[in-house]
Amino acid sequence: MSAAQAFYPIGTPGTAWGDAERDEWRSRQSRRRSYESDVLARIEQLRGRFDVEHYGCLDYPPDRYPLFAVRSREWNDDLPIALVTGGVHGYETSGVHGALQFLDRHAADFAGRINLLVVPCVSPWGYERVNRWNPDAVDPNRSFREGGGSAEADALMKLVAPLRERVLVHIDLHETTDSDESEFRPAKAARDGESFEAGEIPDGFYTVGDSENPQPEFQTAVIEAVAKVTHIAPADRNGEIIGSPVVAPGVINYPVRQLALCAGITDARYTTTTEVYPDSPRATAEQCNAAQAAAVCAALEFALAHR
């Protein structure tokens, strides 16, 4: 019996969860913050400056969650498109609030230069319960494919589908937290009936590029901008971050489409997944939000300069 399976309170070691285990897991999740107050109220405040689109609704009885995207008011079909997504993993707080901060404080700098499509909170059920998964114990960020099993991913893919060939740059805002190691990776191992091997949480910001289209200069531009706001994660003793080789300071690559990650949902030339570390003693919540906004700004500036 592995250490994680020994302590994780749901399921039988070595056996994947069934309906009963998923029901038990769901029963343990409780609302810890408000999507309506934290996110919808702030989107409502943006209506005077942006077009707000209701692109779907998640029906998780007794709760229903309307989904909203924020668009440039002066949308121009002659301009390229920038897609910004936050809260694909609802518990990753700065992804949501960094996207909202970008809209409020920085989006005006790009008016008339690029069309913005920003989805601040892809997974509101997870946001409220500070969880990585949706109510079916499905990870939305491994579900951006047909039949992926995530209503959150399906709704976003439907929204983006008409535009996917015109997107120049996509920034997907995430966090790596201590709870990844203490809760979510052990939960995944228990859910899948697998053993859990402890890993190491990097202390600092890093980006994940697409191994099929890595764009190293683009990734470096994002890292350099964020380094002015918060610290960048160093490689571990194996030259890796979360088990992947570091290809440049603060940069690793994943096969994003193979893994059905959000960063692979368009044909964008430039894509990155940001990873902030909010549990660092060297970073505040304000810095984490500012780091996400800085990453978006740097990504857009680079993409516009290298079209």
From TrEMBL:
KW Transmembrane helix (keyword) present: no
Residue ranges annotated for the Peptidase M14 domain, each copy included: 31-307
Keyword Hydrolase: yes
Keywords per UniProt: Hydrolase, Metal-binding, Zinc
Named cofactor requirement(s): Zn(2+)
Family affiliation: Belongs to the peptidase M14 family.
Name of this protein: M14 family metallocarboxypeptidase
